[in-house]
Design a protein that fits this description.
By secondary structure, chain A is mainly alpha-helical. Chain A is built from 26 helices and 6 strands. Chain B has 7 helices and 3 strands, in the order H-H-H-E-H-E-H-H-E-H. The chains are: A mainly alpha, B alpha/beta.
């Protein structure tokens, strides 16, 4: 083969692997993450050996994780971060500490020195931010208590890496540098963080403003990338976690007006680079160790997942999560994390433990990382099966929720649903509110409302909200497909509940009306209101403008209702459209005639 | 037309010790959502309340009736504690379609204006107000230019006498 540029070969190999494996795994319902991991294994040294230098790729692909954290920081808000401090330092700290202690004890029991045990335990206590978050996002569990707590713990772990990295040299046989060097690095770390904060607060936004006003879209993208990469560089020079740095930057920008622009610009990069990261993890797995000592590895994996799983479960229950959320939390965080590879690498370098220990541990971590998505799938299937049968697990969960007897359930508490809720609340009508935004739910709960997180298309959530005894279900969510799904299922299981739904367009409206759902068109009232205002500006009296616009609104509504039964019949629809134009003109003409009639001598006597 | 020229007249004559206010109900409350508190405050500010309206079906237009229903509250305008309007003056300026003749026992409308206006008289009485017979402009649509001018003058004079406090 002639000299093909190596990066081209690499790119083609990677992209091919991704394009083949990921859709396959997605189809199988196992998730993209595993697809990437397996793709990596396949093209890595253990199987097809298409990629020579795995280490470099791994480093490069960390950018994917870094980008992910930046975007997550962007989507957060600092007040929320502050409000999460209890989770972060409470649950996060206890999780890391307990897991490390457990690992330390096990290591000592197995006869290893305390230095080795501690180093290994610290590395193993960390969970994979990328995988955990990916899973949580994919399954839409991020807004739930499980997701939020998991996220807080992951954030804490990111912070925890710093002291861990700092401690490793102290554990090593090789003496680390003098006192001054560790002080120096401490100062450097603080300096770097301050630099990021200063940058974020004072410099970035003016720069963004200048760029944005020049309307050069690609420069904005370039600047966003520069920001992320630059901060990563700064952090890595100082020895801090890159992801932490970019996360901080993201948080600082979260309240800026450019947040959405940046998000949109970086999103495609994130997806691809994350995929690359997972592939590199797959590639770095040295499967030969697996073939030589399969039981050792298997044992390690089970020990890792089991111990962490149990500790996580205990901690989350202690923190007040219910069984279901605790299970999700435990499973999502039970795997090892990518930082383990970093710590193992450093530990071997510092000769804290030999390759012979690092390799199996790395392998165990990698396998555990693959296992997490699989475990989640298994969990879902088993748990959902139990739910359907109304098994013990499910029943206990529902008992944990108060017995709901609201007359009205509002699914979706954005601007649309809120208005409805406020009207009812002012009359003290008991209502239950469902929304996928945890902030909203928190506010509602403060007011003493019954409010639940979640995806209203989940029937178990509706059931927990008391739909079986409710009078009315208001569907006020944005997503019309989801609304239709809800209607279909609710009509089937609880046909006695009256459903009133928000609707966006005629097609959806007709669909809903055919299922005996009362519909309210999103925009109709508002646009008529605008017509009324235009009439006012044109010099029509306010009352006249009001009359005309209401008349039109009612007429239009009537037309829609009359057309609904014929929704399938195109011909009728078309002729109705014509008829309605004619009819409207006749209507308007009649109004004019009424005015003129007043000239008749007998008209007003 | 009628109202506008009178309005101009009043604007010219008002002063701090002779305040003058004007409310176009249909312009202010086109959707019939009357701001009751604001209207009660308005009533408190003035001594003489004049209602100008066409005579539709022997009564006032719906929004004005709605105004009476909503604003003349128990405990405000009448009933225990309802002293807010006591001693104030009530007068209507009414335009009718029919001529003066038809508003008689012999005419096509069978009853006199006074008889048709009893509800308003009684409303004023119950609110402790002094009811004055209305200024009526009959056959409002068929006025000659001359008649119109005379009507406007009468209206202006009426308003003036109120402003001067001549009507007791």
């Amino acid at each position: 083969m002639s000299h093909a540029p190596s990066f081209l070969v690499l790119a083609v190999v990677f992209l091919s692997a991704a394009v083949i494996m990921v859709p396959l795994f997605h189809r199988l319902g196992i998730g993209a993450v595993i697809g990437y991991l397996v793709a990596g294994i396949l093209i890595g040294p253990s199987v097809l050996n298409l990629i020579p230098k795995v280490e470099d790729i791994l480093h490069f692909s960390e950018i994917g994780v870094v980008l992910l954290l930046f975007l997550i920081g962007l989507e957060l808000n600092p007040t929320k971060l502050w409000s999460m401090r209890r989770s972060i330092f409470g649950v996060g700290l206890s999780q890391t500490v307990f897991t490390t202690l457990a690992g330390l004890s096990i290591g000592l029991l197995l006869g290893f020195s305390w230095q080795i045990s501690l180093a290994a335990a610290m590395a193993l206590s960390l969970s994979s931010t990328a995988i955990a978050l990916q899973v949580l996002k994919e399954k839409k569990w991020l807004p739930s208590p499980a997701g939020q707590t998991a996220f807080a713990v992951l954030l804490f772990q990111d912070l925890a890496v710093i002291p861990m990295l700092a401690m490793l040299p102290l554990l090593g046989e090789v003496a680390s540098g003098s006192e001054s060097s560790s002080w120096l690095s401490f100062v450097k770390s603080v300096g770097a963080i301050l630099a990021v904060v200063f940058l974020g607060r004072y410099l970035i936004r003016p720069i963004l403003r200048t760029i944005a006003s020049s309307a050069l879209r690609e420069i904005l993208t370039a600047f966003s990338l520069l920001l992320v990469l630059g901060i990563s560089l700064l952090m890595s020079l100082v020895g801090l976690s890159m992801a932490l740095g970019t996360f901080l930057a993201g948080v600082l920008l979260a309240e800026s007006e450019y947040r959405h622009e940046i998000e949109m610009d970086l999103e495609p990069f994130k997806g691809l680079l994350l995929g690359l990261f997972f592939m590199s993890v797959g590639m770095s797995m040295n499967l030969s160790v697996l073939t030589v000592q399969p039981f050792l590895i298997l044992g390690l994996v089970i020990l890792l997942l089991g111990a962490k799983g149990i500790i996580n479960f205990g901690i989350s229950r202690a923190a007040g999560l219910d069984v279901r959320d605790s299970l999700i939390f435990s499973i999502t965080l039970s795997q090892g994390g990518e930082f383990a590879f970093v710590l193992f690498g450093l530990a071997t370098q510092l000769q804290i433990f030999p390759e012979a220990i690092a390799q199996p541990l790395s392998l165990a971590v990698a396998i555990s990382m693959i296992s997490a998505p699989l475990l989640i799938v298994a969990f879902e299937k088993i748990y959902l099966a139990k739910l359907a049968v109304g098994g013990k697990l499910a029943r206990r969960d529902f008992d944990a929720v108060e017995n709901e007897h609201s007359k009205v359930i509002i699914a979706g508490y954005g601007r649309f649903g809120q208005m409805v809720g406020r009207v009812l609340h002012s009359l003290k009508v008991p209502i239950t509110v469902l929304d996928a935004d945890p902030n909203q739910i928190e506010i509602m709960r403060k007011f003493g409302w019954k409010a639940f997180y979640g995806d209203a298309t989940r029937m178990d959530l509706l059931e927990a909200s008391g739909i079986a005894t409710a009078q009315i279900l208001v569907i006020a969510i944005d997503d019309m497909d989801a609304s239709l799904r809800i209607i279909e299922q609710v009509k089937e299981r609880w046909p006695q509940v009256k459903i009133i739904s928000r609707t966006r367009n005629r097609a959806t409206a007709f669909d809903m009306m055919a299922q005996e759902v009362q519909v309210v068109r999103e925009v109709a009232s508002a646009s008529v209101e605008m017509a009324e205002k235009v009439l006012g500006q044109l010099g029509y009296g306010r009352h006249e403008a009001f009359q005309i616009s209401r008349k039109f609104y009612n007429y239009d509504l009537k037309m829609m209702e009359e057309t609904a039964p014929h929704a399938q019949n195109q011909a009728v629809l078309i002729s109705t459209a014509f008829r309605s134009k004619e009819a409207l003109m006749r209507l308007m003409e009649k109004d004019e005639k009424n005015f003129r009639d007043e000239d008749h001598p007998d008209a007003w006597s | 037309m009628l109202r506008d020229s009178v309005l101009k007249h009043c604007e010219e004559r008002k002063s701090p010790d002779r305040p003058f206010g004007f409310l176009d109900l249909y312009e202010t409350y086109p959707d019939f959502q009357i701001d009751v508190e604001a209207e009660k405050q308005r009533l408190l500010k003035f001594q003489r309340i004049l209602f100008q309206h066409p005579f539709y079906w022997y009564s006032c237009p719906p929004l004005l009736k709605h105004y009476f229903d909503e604003v003349l509250e128990l405990g405000f305008a009448y009933g225990p504690g309802g002293q807010a309007l006591k001693g104030k003056h009530w007068q209507q300026i009414i335009t009718t379609g029919g001529s003066a003749e038809v508003y008689s026992h012999e005419g096509s409308n069978c009853y006199t204006m006074d008889e048709f206006l009893r509800p308003y008289e009684q409303t004023a009485r119950l609110c402790g107000m002094r009811y004055h017979s209305p200024l009526i402009l009959h056959a409002a649509r068929r006025l000659t230019e001359e008649a119109r001018r005379k009507a406007i003058d009468s209206y202006k004079k009426l308003v003036d006498s109120h402003l001067e406090g001549e009507i007791v």
